From TrEMBL:
This is DUF1028 domain-containing protein. It comes from marine metagenome.
C-alpha cells in the first residue's frame, strides 16, 4: 500500500493575501505529498491544502477560503488538476479570477482493484501489488500511479508573477524579483537526490535570494 506523508509546512512568514512563492509536489513511488513555500509577511500557512494519498492544492494571491474549499471538494471528487483550475476560473466566488494564483498536483491511478493477494494481483495485466512479499497477506492492487499538475496565474496578480509545471510538481509565485526565483526553486527540486521532503527543502533553498519577495528588500 502507498505510504502517504504530509511534509511539515515550510513557510517561514506569510501573508493572508499573497503568499509569494510555493511548491506542491508528489512522489508516485511512495505516495508522499508535499507542500512548502516562503514569504516575508506572516499568516499564509492556510493557503496549503493537502489531501493524503491524493495531492495538494495551493490557493494564493488574494486568498479566499471559499475558493480553496471549492478546489478541495473537486479534488476529493476526483477531478484532475487541469479540470480544477478550469472550474476555479469559471466559478470564482468574487467573479475575479484575474487576481488569483493556484498550483495543484495529484496522484492518479486509472484502476484500483482493492485488497488482493499477491498472486491475484499478478494475474491482472499491468497492475502493481503494494503488499509485503512472501507474507501471504493482502495488499493494495492497482494500475501504476502517475502524477499530474496544473497552475494558474491571473493577469492581475502582482509582478513579477508566474508559474512552472513539471510532471510531479507545480511552482508558483507573485511579487517576485524575477522569474529566476521560480527557476531556482525548480533547479533545487530537480537536481536534489533523496526523499520528497529533501527535494522540497532544497527547492526552497533555490529561492534563498535577498528580496526574493520584493516586499522584503528592506529586510535583506
Amino acid at each position: 500500500m502507498h505510504l502517504t506523508k504530509i511534509i511539515i509546512f515550510c513557510f517561514t512568514v506569510h501573508s493572508l493575501l499573497m503568499a509569494t512563492f510555493s511548491i506542491v509536489a508528489v512522489d508516485t513511488t511512495t505516495g508522499e505529498v508535499a507542500s512548502a513555500g516562503g514569504s516575508c509577511i506572516a499568516g499564509s500557512i492556510i493557503i496549503s491544502d493537502i489531501h493524503p494519498g491524493l495531492g495538494a492544492i495551493h490557493t494564493q494571491s488574494y486568498y479566499l477560503p471559499a475558493n480553496q474549499n471549492y478546489a478541495s471538494t473537486l479534488m476529493d471528487d476526483g477531478y484532475s488538476p487541469e479540470e480544477i483550475i478550469e472550474l476555479l476560473e469559471e466559478n470564482d466566488v468574487q467573479n475575479n479570477p484575474s487576481i488569483r494564483q493556484y498550483g495543484i498536483v495529484d496522484l492518479f491511478s486509472e484502476n484500483n482493484y482493492g485488497m488482493l493477494y499477491e498472486y491475484e494481483c499478478n494475474e491482472i495485466e499491468g497492475a502493481i501489488w503494494y503488499g509485503v512479499p512472501n507474507t501471504g497477506e493482502l495488499g493494495e492492487c492497482s494500475d501504476p500511479t502517475i502524477s499530474r499538475s496544473a497552475s494558474f496565474t491571473g493577469n492581475n496578480c502582482s509582478n513579477w508573477r508566474g508559474h512552472i509545471n513539471g510532471i510531479n510538481y507545480a511552482i508558483q509565485g507573485n511579487i517576485l524579483l524575477s522569474e529566476d526565483i521560480l527557476l531556482g526553486i525548480e533547479d533545487g527540486f530537480l537536481n536534489t537526490n533523496g526523499s520528497l521532503d529533501q527535494k522540497v527543502m532544497a527547492a526552497l533553498q533555490g529561492a534563498k535570494v535577498p528580496g526574493a519577495d520584493t516586499r522584503c528588500l528592506d529586510e535583506g
